[in-house]
Amino acid sequence: MEHVSVELRELLSAIYRTIPVKKGMYLFQEGEKADELYYIQSGKIQISKTNMDGQELTLRICSQGDLIGELTLFCPGARYMLTAKALEDSVVSAIPREVIEKELSDNPKLAIEFMKWMSLHFRKTQTKFRDLILHGKKGALYSTLIRLCNSYGVMKEDGILIDIPLTNQELANFCGTAREVVNRMLGDLRKKGVISVQKGKIRVHNLQYLRDEIACEGCPPELCSID
């Protein structure tokens, strides 16, 4: 949470109830009663939405210092709108929803900081939907690769290594499409020399090609990220 104040970070990082979450376990699922928010101490948590056909759309990957479940604040009878699943063994702190609501109600400065942080997340989500709507499945995949480079990219002599292992199905979930479609598009990119795959990790050799193909607007890294 690089963009929040020290005061807000201290509130969210206070230990209330620590929960270990094994890889593949759900922290919460869409529709469940929301009594707590969760602050990630370590690990990675995937946030996703499932449509009426059961297709999963991954919205972001959260890591150390992120708060999840925040959309339930100040909503009577709140239920989780999204699903949170651990991508790796993780540790989170569970914070009662009413604790944060009270702190935000009593401290206007803190509330403003929280609103700024929420606004940033909404803007990130809007840009992801923009790419999917304007450029279809190709735009969704290419923009996902660009965001992964910004979030997990490591510069190498021959390109940018996306230093997080993702299956083609997990990439497909980011794009709201089938794994077979992603397989074909990744195959085309490999043939063109735009990417390569080594030990389950993608290396992007021509980032500019991806940007040009979706008419990238050059959004700042804080917006163009996968977290």
Description:
This protein has 227 residues and is α+β, with helices and mostly antiparallel strands. It is 40% helix and 25% strand. It is built from 6 helices and 12 strands. The strands form 3 sheets. A 4-stranded antiparallel β-sheet has the order 1-8-3-6. Strands 2-7-4-5 form a 4-stranded antiparallel β-sheet. Strands 9-10-12-11 form a 4-stranded antiparallel β-sheet. It is globular. It starts with 5 loop residues before the first helix and ends in a 14-residue tail after the last helix.
Give, in spatial order, the strands making up the sheet with the most strands.
1-8-3-6
The amount of beta strand, in percent, is 25-35%
Low-confidence stretches: none
Q: Give, in order, the helices and strands.
A: HEEEEEEEEHHEEHHEEH
CATH topology group of the largest domain:
Jelly Rolls
The CATH homologous superfamily of the largest domain is termed Jelly Rolls
Number of self-contained structural domains: 2
The total count of helices amounts to 6
- Global outline: globular
Domain Cyclic nucleotide-binding: 7-104
InterPro entries: cNMP-bd_dom, cNMP-bd_dom_sf, Env_Response_Regulators, HTH_CRP, RmlC-like_jellyroll, WH-like_DNA-bd_sf, WH_DNA-bd_sf
Keywords: Activator, DNA-binding, Transcription, Transcription regulation
GO molecular function, one term: DNA-binding transcription factor activity
Summarize the structure.
The chain is of the alpha+beta class and 227 residues long. It is globular, with a radius of gyration of 18 Å. The strands form three sheets. The protein has a four-stranded antiparallel sheet. A four-stranded antiparallel sheet has the order 2-7-4-5.
